[in-house]
Amino acid sequence: MLRKLVLLFAMLAMANAVTLRKWIASHEKTCYFAWADTPGKKISFYYAVQLGGNFDIDYEVEGPNNRQLFKGEAERQGDFVFTATQVGEYAFCFKNGLASFADKLVEFDITVEDEVRPDDITKREKRNEVISSVVTIASDLQQITKFMKYFRTRENRNFATVASTESRVWWFSALESLCVVLVAVVQVYAIQALFTAKRSRL
């Protein structure tokens, strides 16, 4: 049992992961970098807009020599896994577009793995039972983490929708009450003017 735990932590230590949350101001562009020291490493990139505006952001992923790998505009979240074919620095940039005037909170995760995941069943069969179990557990933990991030993002967006709807309902109710009071005042003055006109005729 102790040996399995040691192997599990060893496998988890093979991945260099950074999870950050960053407020990006309107019209701001910010970049983060990861280094691949050998070709063939797996790099995963996950991001999700947690708060602000329409929950969208522009993103761009560049490899060494400013080679563009991924790009998107007004995206709410993304999850990418690619192989580093070159040694060098990989840039992950976010830009709060020109059409946005709200600050946005972006949560993102950059992971550089030291070895390729054995997703192929034949590769798993070549490994011994302990290593296969550790790899499976590590993969399942990563999937659970992604699901937790996804549900947290959905919760934040749903909460923002509820808050926006509540604000609209409050203002609509206030406007409706104001209209009722205004109509009542107009009716009172109209009836008063009607009786005043009849008295003047008499």
Evaluate the radius of gyration.
Answer: 29 Å
**Which stretches are low in confidence, meaning pLDDT under 50 for 5 or more residues running?**
1-14
Alpha carbon gap, first and last residue = 107 Å
The percent range for helix content is 40-55%
Tell me the strand order in the biggest sheet. 1-8-3-6
The overall pLDDT, averaged over residues, is 80
Q: What's the total number of strands?
A: 8
Main sheet characteristics = 4 strands, antiparallel
Structural class: alpha+beta
Instruction: Report the sheet-strand fraction.
Output: 35-45%
What is the helix tally?
3
| SSE string, helices as H and strands as E | HEEEEEEEEHH
The best one-word shape is elongated
Describe the structure.
Residues 1-14 have low confidence and may be disordered. It is built from 3 helices and 8 strands; from the N terminus they run H-E-E-E-E-E-E-E-E-H-H. Helices cover 45% and strands 35% of the residues. The chain has 202 residues and is α+β, with helices and mostly antiparallel strands. The longest helix has 73 residues, at 129-201. The strands form 2 sheets. Strands 1-8-3-6 form a 4-stranded antiparallel sheet. It is elongated and about 105 Å long.
